[in-house]
Structure formats: C-alpha cells, structure tokens
Amino acid sequence: MSPFVLLTILCLGVARDTQSSDPSLDSEWQEWKIKYDKNYSLEEEGQRRAVWEENMKVVKQHNIEYDQGKNNFTMEVNAFGDMTGEEFRKMMIDIPVLRFRKKKSIQSHTGGYLPKFVDWRRRGYVTSVKNQGRCNSCWAFSVASAIEGQMFRKTGRLVSLSAQNLVDCSRPEGNRGCISGHTFYTFKYVWNNGGLEAESTYPYEGREGHCRYLPERSAARIKGFSIISSTEEALMNAVATIGPISVGIDASHESFTFYSGGIYYEPKCRNKTVNHAVLLVGYGYEGKESDGRKYWLIKNSHGEEWGMNGYMKLARGWNNHCGIATYAFYPRV
Ligand SMILES: *[C@@H]1O[C@H](CO)[C@@H](O)[C@H](O)[C@H]1NC(C)=O
Ligand SMILES: *[C@@H]1O[C@H](CO)[C@@H](O)[C@H](O)[C@H]1NC(C)=O
Ligand SMILES: *[C@@H]1O[C@H](CO)[C@@H](O)[C@H](O)[C@H]1NC(C)=O
C-alpha cells in the first residue's frame, strides 16, 4: 500500500469521527428524511446530516430575525436541506445577458393606468407548479409557461407544454440540456421549429434524451418574441397588459434555496447577472401601499413544496432587486 493511500484513509477516518451530530435534532432529522423521501447509504448519512444541521442553524437564525422584524421573509429546511451552498450553486450558471438593439425592446408606456394588483393565476393563465428535479432546466419551464399563458389568452385553453421537448431539442440553438440553457435560445427554438408539444404527449423526465418532437403533435407555436427593456416600470407595464413574462433572476443565495414565504430581499443579490429563469405572474403589495412592502409574484420550478406552494414574492421597487427586470421576454402567439 502506498503512503498516499494510507494517508487518504486516515484523513477519511478522522473526518468521520468529527461528524458528531446533535442528538436533540434526531427526531427532526428522521421526520425531514421521511417528508422528502431521502434514503442514504451508511457512509453518506453522516455527511448529509452534518450539512443538514448547518442549514438548519442558518434557517433557524434567519427565522428568529424574522420574528424580531429584521427581515420580511421566512425560510425552511426544504428538499434541498442536505445540499451545501456550493452544490446548489453548481446547479446554476450565470447566464450572459445578450445585448439587443434598443428599438427591439418594449418601452414603458408613460401615464397609463396600471392596476395595483395583478395575478394571472386568477384569470386562468397559469398551469400547475412543476419540478425540474436535479436537471438544470429552469429555462425550459420558464419559456414553456410563458407560452402557456399567451396560448391561453389566444385560445381560451390552458395546456401544460413540454419542457422535456425543449431540453431534448434546443441544443442546436445553443442550449446544453440539463447542464444549462438560455431563455432567448429557447424561444428561438420554438419559433424556428414551428411548434412545441404538450406535457401530455412529451412528458418530463429530468434528463436529456433524443429529440422526439413530432410536428403533428405540436400544441403551441409562436410568431416571435420580444424583450422588455430592463426597468421595473417597463416590466410592470408588460406583466399588467400582456400576461405572464419569462424573467431571469440571481437565485444563487441560500436564502433563495430555503425561502418559504414573505417578501424576499437578499442584500447579496446582484442585478446585472442572472442565473435562474422563472415566470413572473404578477405583482402587488402587502399592508398599506405606502408601507413599501411591494412585491413581484414569481412561479418557480422547484415543485409545490418550495416557497409558497411553489411561488415567491420578491421585493419590488428596490433597484431591480436580483435582476428581475434584467432579462425579461414574452412570446407573441
Ligand atoms: C433504502 O434503500 C435501500 C437500498 O437501496 C433499500 O433496501 C431500502 O428498502 C430503502 N429504504 C427505504 C426506507 O426506502
Ligand atoms: C420590509 O418591511 C418593512 C416594514 O413594513 C418595510 O418598511 C420594508 O420596505 C420592507 N422591505 C422590503 C424589501 O420589502
Ligand atoms: C442595480 O442596483 C444598483 C444599486 O443597488 C442601482 O444603482 C442600479 O441602477 C441597478 N441597475 C439596474 C439595471 O436597475
């Protein structure tokens, strides 16, 4: 046996000894594993428990501060509770924001009346919350759901469209399956391809496969798509008048991972680069309008157990918080 191998084994041995867990959390750990259907090998259990306990500490501390009125949102140790921040960020890649000629983007209308509350779910524009799983396919769900809304507006029928179709078939446009994707390339794919299948004919698998799109099964097509100029005013105008909008945000912080309710505000959030695509379905405010608790309402693709039944309220009117207005598109159907 070489000295190197011996050393490695020793290090592992030491590492395992230091992973003593807090017995007072035993029952919470068991309940969490059952709730989220986790099943580890013996070697893995200790490591995952240690990560979970770290996350538990962060979340509990945050919620104490929430109770003290120091922030406006709560957190919980959800299905991602056994992942380190590093592991979670690996699922996200900064999306280089493409530059567009200004005349192509939609300017905000000035002086027009906009409602104080918008929620397209109430008007039937929004399908059920999906779960992308461990596949980095947020861009596919964001684009599919934006098209679902505009198809509903046009036809009066709400149909879940196939994110798997997008994952499997948009590689030639520049996407990379479960590794990463770009909402711009994805709209371009649907436009060039002449259609997109429904979730029912091309169900989600959460891994990249061969492209199996069939034109005769196409359930939606688009005539083009537009980018919205990067201000919250333009975004508000668009979501109020057009319908749900595909947006990008900076979601690379653990406060996002473990968000459970309230108005999300993360001081570390950036507004120039985005790394996660979601669907903007409306906006509003809590309390009195003058309180300043204004929010954007977004639909995520991490399942219904994440956030507020799969949704998040994100701070509105805070310098384009987390880049909500930086990379916004809608399809023309
Ligand atoms: C966990 O996985 C092992 C092996 O994969 C299996 O034998 C066992 O039944 C599983 N336990 C639960 C609770 O799912
Ligand atoms: C948080 O709540 C306080 C108190 O209502 C409010 O003044 C503040 O603007 C809120 N912050 C955000 C980011 O919504
Ligand atoms: C980003 O935020 C900074 C301050 O936090 C602000 O000055 C800037 O205008 C924002 N950028 C955009 C594009 O809104």
Briefly characterize the structure:
The protein has 333 residues and is an alpha+beta fold. It contains nine helices and twelve strands. It has helices at 3-18, 26-35, 42-67, 85-90, 138-155, 163-169, 183-193, 232-241, 254-257, and strands at residues 73-75, 105-106, 118-119, 196-197, 218-220, 224-228, 245-249, 259-264, 276-285, 294-299, 311-315, 328-332.
Q: How would you portray this structure in words?
A:
Helix content is 32%, strand content 16%. It is built from nine helices and twelve strands. The longest helix has 26 residues, at 42-67. The termini are far apart. The model is unreliable at 1-18 (pLDDT under 50). Bound molecules: 2-acetamido-2-deoxy-beta-D-glucopyranose (3 copies). One 2-acetamido-2-deoxy-beta-D-glucopyranose (NAG) binds next to loops.
Helix % is 25-40%
Ligand list:
2-acetamido-2-deoxy-beta-D-glucopyranose
Low-confidence stretches: 1-18
Largest sheet: 7 strands, mixed
> Assembly state here?
single chain
As a whole number of angstroms, the C-alpha radius of gyration is 22 Å
Number of helices: 9
Please state the overall shape, judged from the principal axes of the Cα atoms. Answer: globular
Q: Terminal Cα separation, in Å? A: 67 Å
Strand content: 15-25%
How many β-strand stretches?
A: 12
Overall residue-averaged pLDDT value: 89
What order do the SSEs take from the amino end to the carboxyl end, as H and E?
A: HHHEHEEHHHEEEHEHEEEEE
Assign the structural class, choosing from mainly alpha, mainly beta, alpha/beta, alpha+beta, or little secondary structure: alpha+beta
